From TrEMBL, chain A:
SUPFAM superfamilies: ABC transporter transmembrane region, P-loop containing nucleoside triphosphate hydrolases
Protein name, entry field: Putative ABC transport system ATP-binding protein
Native organism: Camelimonas lactis
Cellular compartments per GO CC: plasma membrane
Main location (coarse class): membrane
Keywords per UniProt: ATP-binding, Membrane, Nucleotide-binding, Transmembrane, Transmembrane helix
Transmembrane segments: 18-35, 87-111, 191-208, 279-301
GO molecular function: ABC-type oligopeptide transporter activity; ATP binding
Compartments where located: Cell membrane
Membrane topology: Multi-pass membrane protein
TrEMBL record, chain B:
SMART domains according to UniProt: cNMP
Protein name per the record: Cyclic nucleotide-binding protein
A Pfam family per the record: cNMP_binding
Domain spans labelled Cyclic nucleotide-binding: 15-134
PANTHER family for this protein: CAMP-DEPENDENT PROTEIN KINASE REGULATORY CHAIN, CAMP-DEPENDENT PROTEIN KINASE TYPE I REGULATORY SUBUNIT-RELATED
UniProt-listed InterPro entries: cAMP-dep_PK_reg_su-like, cNMP-bd_CS, cNMP-bd_dom, cNMP-bd_dom_sf, RmlC-like_jellyroll
GO cellular component: cAMP-dependent protein kinase complex; cytosol
Lineage: superkingdom: Bacteria
Amino acid sequence: MERNLFRYVWRHSRRDQLVIFAVVLASLPFYYWSLDLPKRIVNEAIQGGAFRSGLPTTDFLKLGVELPSYLGGGYVSIHDGYKVGQIGLLFGLSSLFLFFVLVNGAFKYWINVAKGALGERMLRRLRFDLFSIVLRFTPETQKTVKSSETATMIKDEVEPIGGFIGDAFSQPLLLGSQAITAMTFIMLQNVWLGLIAGGIVAIQFTVIPRMRRVQLRLGKQRQILSRRLAGKVSEVVDDLEAVHDNDATAYERADVSERLYTLFDLRFRIYKWKFMVKFLNNLLAQITPFFFYAVGGYFALKGTLDIGQLVAVIAAYRDLPPPLKELIDWDQQRLDVQIKYEQVVQQFSPDRLLPGETLAPLPPGVEPPHLQGPVALADLHITDSHGLVLVEHLSFTRALPLRIALVAQDSAAPGAVARVLARRITEYRGAVTFGDLELSRMPEHLTGRRIAYAGPEPVLFAGSLRENLVYGLRHRQQDAPELTGARRMEALRTEGALEATGEGWLDLELAGVDDATALDARLTDVLELVGMRETLLKLGMWGLVDPERYPRLAEKVVEARKVVRQRLEEQGLSNLIEPFDFELYNNQATVAENLLFGVPVHADFMGEALAENRLATRVLDAEDILDALTSMGASIAATMNEIFRDLPPGHPLFEQFSFIDADEIADFDDIVARWKSRGLKGLTHDERARLLALTLDYIEPKHRLGLLNDDLRQALVRARKRLHDALAGSPLRGAVEFYDPDRLTVAAPLRNNLAFGRLSHSVADALPRITAQTTELIDELALRLDVERVGLDYQIGPAGRLLSAEHRVAVYIARGLIKNPDMLILDGVFAAFGENHAREMLSAISERMAGKSIVAVLHGETLADPEVFDMLVRFEGVHPVVVRDHHAAPAAG
Amino acid sequence: MTLENEVQSLRQVPMFRDIDPARLKLLAFTSERVTFTDGQRFFTQGDVGDAAYVILDGAADVLLETAHGQLKVAEFGRNDLIGEMAVLAETPRSATITAVGDVVALRIDKRVFIELLAQFPQMAIAVMREIATRLERTNARLASRN
């Protein structure tokens, strides 16, 4: 990357800068004329200077060129102009003035837009360049870089640079020329006034930048500190568990608080300087008119300066300080962004990057190559970043497929070898070759397709389970969809990526399937291999069914729910589920769900918001039960206060069972006390809503406080009908998805759709029995794959945190398997599973990878099944010992 | 039946007799009231103990799984506490319990029970006292047999 910001900008935006430059130049004459006109208006029109010779009229808009003598002299008239009187001249000149104001405005508008576009484009390019460089970080570099700091750099720190780029060349040009025009104009009117103005400008230009340099130094410190703060915050967020495990919250608070003080102090100092400079600048700017009035007035009285000139000078001067100030600002910004740019670029220097050739695309029309044997390790020697030796003198040559198990006790050696083969360690000595290709020089289109790696620390990202699995298929595609229209134009202009994301990026051929459905089936196969099939079904049952993507399932669900009901009745188990019935109160559901008789889609109808929802309170009031329900909330609050009073805040039972948060106890104490003494009248609107919110969560058979009677239940059913009628005719239509026995409820999990009712809280073991029933039915209706596909939509959370540790590793292995690699590297992944599970998994993987290579780092030799592995290498410290070798290849050479 | 009735039932259980009513209310609120139909199992011998039960209404048989099939060894009735030993000692269930007729019971989750004991020493002491009394009784019975 270019080290100097201006050279970077110039190289990539020369043309645009020149166009803007040209337009700026073209705008200058108009600017000058708009300065000159006031003088003519005063002198010629108002004071009648044009009519001094006694003529009643004068020429207006007379245009012509005086030819120089070498062209023969004389005058060539372009426009004869109009004969006008004094009033006519005044209005004519004034209109001309207005015209120039408009022209200047138009110029300014165009220039600003062009500069904005230029800046934004350069910002886009800069960010994209930086991101491209991030993709080229070597594994070793990546370890030393804090991800959040890199993100801050690309996102925030380059932003002001982008804003500045549009101004980089044109701003000083425009402002400079404006200032010079104004200065020249003043000079032409009166040299003395010009010299005074010039003198003050000179002071401004020497003192202010000096003062600002201090400000800049502070600004640079602020940039570094802010970046570190961002790094710190994200570090704490990422390791929040560790913070709690070690009771380190107090320390982290102190640490961040201290950083915030330093930052505050710095920012405050910057403010003080900034306003100091501003004060001085304003003072200097305003002292000048004093001289103009005093000195200019003196000259005018003496008669060496006419009033028109003085007015024009003062008018011109009014235009002088703003460009000057901006010019000084520009200079400061220049220093500022140059520093920022250097700071950023330093972090992205080439000595920490992968060779560009490994990222070269596969030439069009070429079949992706396979790994070639034999694989040869010649005197491999690996050290870690501190120079500590991990592996010494590892050499062997084997034909493919390579089936090798690496084991060690208390040694990092096997993992290091695995990571070298996966190219996760690039700094090693010795040679690793496949056929005649050196591993480190192999292009990524080869290694990325043919080598798969799964390690003990799964690399998963926020997204669906499916997206995480198919990441192994997201290679550069020969026929990736291309961008079109404006997106393409801009990408070309800023050398961005021309491919569009979205469909078409998956290498289905590599997975051995033809379409998305087949791919999903393959994914479930692979998940079975790693022992996640049952979990997948469960995730599917909890998932939402998108009827557009899964039309068959959506249709069958309605059928299935009827069968579920029928079966339960046949087996005398109909009390397991209380079905939804529009005419009846559902005892197993919350009061809120009974009121809505559906799933809220709009936030105004969800959770506590429902208690403040006007529509909801209106229908409850219409049934005259709003007060009763609010009082019921007070009873709940009173009971909760009584029951949970002695538990410390944050106690797990509190979190799990109480209607009220620990920190709300005192509030509710107060509310309940007032309710007891003065009834609902003693409460504010907000407090009533809080009480109603408690009632809305209430389920009689679950909470058993004996608060709901039949009258209330019936009134709630009537309120439900009112609510449905009211919603149907309101703009909020669709804010609640109503239950309909003949239609899929899109916003409810599949499980609930199958049950179409609420599980009884008072029947023992209702959940496992229903689960067994529905699972059986799913298989009978041949819907398993459809449900599992819904399971693949499951969002696994940032870094897969919503999955268990074991499942994260399983998904990681599955991602490697889905691309059918030539070589699968399993680096210590089996430690996450029990011995038996690991053994089964290993043999299943081996079967699937028949004829392909497997390199496995195992935690014990017992796992190194000779059926799976031809070769077993044990590391004693850093030295490899070949324990078993079935088909030793003849020595190379 | 509401929480208040359940608290009354809990007070009849010897283990909970001396415990504050407010604690019993907490215990009741954090438990589930469930019904079993005739012959339905509370749990099976050898299972992991995940909950204890207090019978609120009805009766249950205690069955031992033997080589010759099930053998009824005792019967539980109203206000009896069932399965607390497996919860406290973390041992597998020592017998199978099935409902006789319809049974209403309070299911006390193991985790919740342990949390409560950890939080309130008074409850822990009451439980210890009950278990010590049982041991004493067993000893006395053994002594009288000899």
